[in-house]
C-alpha cells in the first residue's frame, strides 16, 4: 500500500440536527492510497489518523466550481492539456480495470472508529463537485447515491488533491452551466498587478502594469475560464445550442427542423462598410442654442447626435458632462439645478466628514477602511502625473483626487476603492475643476462600470464574450485566426474594457472618446465597436506576420499612446452602420445560398441596441 497524497487541515462542517454535533468542525487527514492497483480516497478525523508526519503544505487554493462525472464508455476522452478549465464538468474514466471494493461511511467494510471517517474506491465515484465559495470544499457523489459529508480545505490543498486524482483516473469533460467568477477575478489581479502578493491582495494592487509578463498571466486565467464555455457549447444538443445562440444573438436563427442530409443555418451578409463623416466639436455657443430661457435642454436627441459626431470643445465640457453623466437632468431649469447643486454639496460633505472624523484609534480597528486609504494614497501619487493639473509635489489636484476617492468609499462602502478607479476619476476632475461636481459625475460613471470592479467580475466576463461574438460576426476569418492562436476570447482587450481605453489614448483623446460614448449613440455598447475598430486596423499586420499567442499580446500592449482617435471613431461608426444595414441569408452547410434576397434585418447583438432612425439615420451623414 502506497500513500499517493496526504493533507491535514481538511474539515467537515457538521450540519446535523443533533445538538451534540450541531455546528461541529471536524478536522482530519485526507489521503489517496494506492492499494493493490486500486485508488482509495480515505478521510480520517484527527483522532483516528495515523502517521501524521507525511503532510502536504499547499499554497493558495484557487479552485472554483468544478464538477467531475463519469461518462459513457463510448465518449471520447481528452488530454490533460484540454482539461484545465475552471468552469466545466469532468467525466471520470478508470485508467485500468479496477476490482470493485465496497466503501464505508462510518460503518461496515473497514471498521472506522469515528462516524465522520470514510474510505471509498475511485471506481465507486459517480462525480465530484468542487466549489470555491469561502473555503474550497469538495463533495463526493457515489454511484449508489450514498451521501458522504462535504470536506472543506481550510488550509488549501484541493488543487493537489485533484491533481493526484487525475494521475489515478482519466478526466473527461461534460456540460456544466454554472458560471465561474474566481478565474476572472484572478485574471484581473494578474493583469493589473505583476507582484507577488496573494490573490486577494492583488485585486487591490497596481492595475496598470503593461508589461508582457502581466498580460501573459491574465491570458492563462481567462483562456481557461472561457475554454470551458466553448467546449460546453460543442457538447450540447443541437436544439439547446440553438436556444443558447439565440439568446446571445437574437437576430441569428438556426432551423431545427429535421431535413436529412442538410443542416440549415442562418448567415449574415454584412455588405459594404459605409463611409461616414464626422463634424467639428460643438462649441459653447452651439450648446447654448439648445437651452430654452429657463435653462431646459431642448431637442436632446439632436444635441446628442451632434456631440456623437464631433465631441465638445473643452470650454463646453464642464456643463455638458454633467448632463451626459446624469448629474443634471436634461429637463431641469437653472433654478432646479441650483437647488440640486446645494443638496448634493451638503450630501457630499456629510460623507466626507465621516471618514475625516475617524480617529487613529478607530482606524486601527477598521482594516477595510485602512486598506482603502492605503491603496488610494498609493494610486493618487501615480495617476496622470505628467498632466499639469496633477504634476509636482503637494499638488492640490492630487489632494482632491484623494478626498473624492475616500468619500466614494463612504458612498459605496461595499465596493470601496478598487485599483483603476483613480484613472476614471482623473479626467472628470480635470474637466470639472470642482470637488463636488467631479464626485457626483464620477458616481454616475461608476454606476455604468460598477460590474467591472466587483469581486465576481461578471461585467468583464460578459463584455469579453460579447466582444468575441461581435468580432466573429464581423470578421470570421480574423476571429478564426485568433482562435487558432488561443486568442479567440480577446482577453488582450481586458484593460481596454476595464477602464474604457484610459491607458491606451492620449489624455485629450480620452476626453473626446468618453463624451462620445456617453451620448449612448449609436448603441449602448459602442465601446465594443471601438474595440473592433482597433482590431480591424491591426488584423492585417497580425495575420501577415503570423503572430502567435505571445506576439499578439505584445503587439496589442504596445499600441498604447499610438492610436488615432478620429480614425477609430470613423471606423467604429462605419462598422455600426454596416451591421445595421446587413442582410441575413439562409444557407446550406455547404455554403449554397437558398435565399440571397432575404429582407434586411437588424441583428440585435448582446445588449447592443443598434441605432434607430431617431438616434442615428441609416444613411450616412
From TrEMBL:
Gene Ontology cellular-component terms listed: cytoplasm
Every Rab-GAP TBC domain range: 311-521
Subcellular location(s) per record: Cytoplasm
Molecular functions (GO terms): GTPase activator activity
UniProt keyword terms in alphabetical order: Acetylation, Cytoplasm, GTPase activation, Phosphoprotein
Subunit-level organization: Interacts with non-phosphorylated form of RAB8A; phosphorylation of RAB8A at 'Thr-72' disrupts this interaction. Interacts with ARMC12.
Record function comment: Acts as a GTPase activating protein for RAB7A. Does not act on RAB4, RAB5 or RAB6.
Protein name: TBC1 domain family member 15
Species of the source: Denticeps clupeoides
Amino acid at each position: 500500500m502506497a500513500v499517493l497524497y496526504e493533507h491535514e487541515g481538511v474539515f467537515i462542517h457538521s450540519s446535523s440536527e443533533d445538538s451534540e454535533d450541531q455546528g461541529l468542525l471536524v478536522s482530519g487527514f485526507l489521503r489517496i492510497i494506492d492499494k493493490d492497483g486500486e485508488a482509495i480516497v480515505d478521510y480520517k478525523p484527527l483522532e483516528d489518523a495515523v502517521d501524521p508526519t507525511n503532510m502536504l503544505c499547499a499554497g493558495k487554493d484557487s479552485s472554483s466550481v468544478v464538477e467531475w462525472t463519469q461518462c459513457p464508455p463510448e465518449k471520447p476522452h481528452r488530454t490533460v492539456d484540454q482539461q484545465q478549465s475552471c468552469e466545466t464538468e469532468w467525466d471520470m474514466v478508470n485508467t485500468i480495470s479496477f476490482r470493485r471494493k465496497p466503501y464505508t461511511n462510518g460503518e461496515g467494510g473497514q471498521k472506522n472508529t469515528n462516524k465522520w471517517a470514510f474510505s471509498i474506491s475511485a471506481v465507486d465515484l459517480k462525480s465530484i463537485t468542487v466549489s470555491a465559495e469561502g473555503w474550497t470544499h469538495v463533495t463526493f457523489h457515489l454511484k449508489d447515491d450514498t451521501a458522504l459529508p462535504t470536506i472543506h480545505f481550510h488550509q488549501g490543498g484541493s488543487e493537489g488533491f485533484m491533481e493526484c486524482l487525475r494521475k489515478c483516473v482519466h478526466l473527461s469533460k461534460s456540460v456544466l452551466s454554472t458560471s465561474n467568477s474566481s478565474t476572472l477575478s484572478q485574471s484581473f489581479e494578474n493583469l493589473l498587478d505583476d507582484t507577488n502578493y496573494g490573490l486577494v491582495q492583488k485585486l487591490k494592487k497596481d492595475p496598470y502594469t503593461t508589461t508582457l509578463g502581466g498580460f501573459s498571466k491574465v491570458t492563462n486565467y481567462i483562456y481557461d475560464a472561457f475554454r470551458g464555455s466553448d467546449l460546453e457549447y460543442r457538447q450540447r444538443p443541437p436544439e439547446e445550442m440553438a436556444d443558447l445562440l439565440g439568446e446571445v444573438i437574437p437576430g441569428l436563427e438556426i432551423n431545427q427542423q429535421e431535413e436529412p442530409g442538410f443542416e440549415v443555418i442562418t448567415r449574415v451578409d454584412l455588405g459594404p462598410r459605409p463611409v461616414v463623416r464626422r463634424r467639428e466639436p460643438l462649441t459653447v455657443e452651439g450648446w447654448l442654442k439648445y437651452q430654452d430661457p429657463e435653462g431646459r435642454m431642448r431637442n436632446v436627441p439632436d444635441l446628442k447626435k451632434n456631440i456623437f459626431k464631433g465631441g465638445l470643445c473643452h470650454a463646453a465640457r464642464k456643463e455638458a458632462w454633467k448632463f451626459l453623466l446624469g448629474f443634471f437632468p436634461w429637463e431641469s431649469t437653472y433654478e432646479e439645478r441650483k437647488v440640486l447643486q446645494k443638496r448634493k454639496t451638503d450630501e457630499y460633505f456629510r460623507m466626507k466628514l465621516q471618514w475625516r472624523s475617524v480617529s487613529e484609534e478607530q482606524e486601527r480597528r477598521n482594516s477595510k477602511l485602512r486598506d482603502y486609504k492605503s491603496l488610494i494614497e498609493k494610486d493618487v501619487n501615480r495617476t496622470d502625473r505628467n498632466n499639469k493639473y496633477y504634476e509636482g509635489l503637494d499638488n492640490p489636484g492630487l489632494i482632491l483626487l484623494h478626498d473624492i476617492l475616500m468619500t466614494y468609499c463612504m458612498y459605496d462602502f461595499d465596493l470601496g476603492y478598487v485599483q483603476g478607479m483613480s484613472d476614471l476619476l482623473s479626467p472628470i476632475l480635470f474637466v470639472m475643476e470642482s470637488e463636488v461636481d467631479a464626485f457626483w459625475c464620477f458616481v454616475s460613471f461608476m454606476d455604468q462600470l460598477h460590474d467591472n470592479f466587483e469581486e465576481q467580475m461578471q461585467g468583464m466576463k460578459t463584455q469579453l464574450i460579447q466582444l468575441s461574438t461581435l468580432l466573429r460576426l464581423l470578421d470570421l476569418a480574423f476571429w478564426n485566426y485568433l482562435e487558432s492562436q488561443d486568442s479567440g476570447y480577446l482577453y488582450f482587450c481586458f484593460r481596454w474594457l476595464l477602464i474604457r481605453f484610459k491607458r491606451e489614448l492620449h489624455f485629450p483623446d480620452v476626453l473626446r472618446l468618453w463624451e462620445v460614448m456617453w451620448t449612448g449613440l449609436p448603441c449602448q455598447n459602442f465601446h465594443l465597436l471601438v474595440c473592433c475598430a482597433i482590431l480591424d486596423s491591426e488584423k492585417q499586420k497580425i495575420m501577415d506576420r503570423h503572430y502567435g499567442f505571445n506576439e499578439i499580446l505584445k503587439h496589442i500592449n504596445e499600441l498604447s499612446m499610438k492610436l488615432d482617435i478620429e480614425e477609430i471613431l470613423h471606423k467604429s461608426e462605419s462598422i455600426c452602420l454596416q451591421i445595421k444595414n446587413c442582410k441575413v441569408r439562409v444557407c446550406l452547410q455547404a455554403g449554397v445560398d437558398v435565399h440571397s434576397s432575404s429582407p434586411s434585418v437588424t441583428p440585435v447583438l448582446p445588449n447592443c441596441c443598434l441605432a434607430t432612425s431617431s438616434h442615428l439615420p441609416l444613411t450616412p451623414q
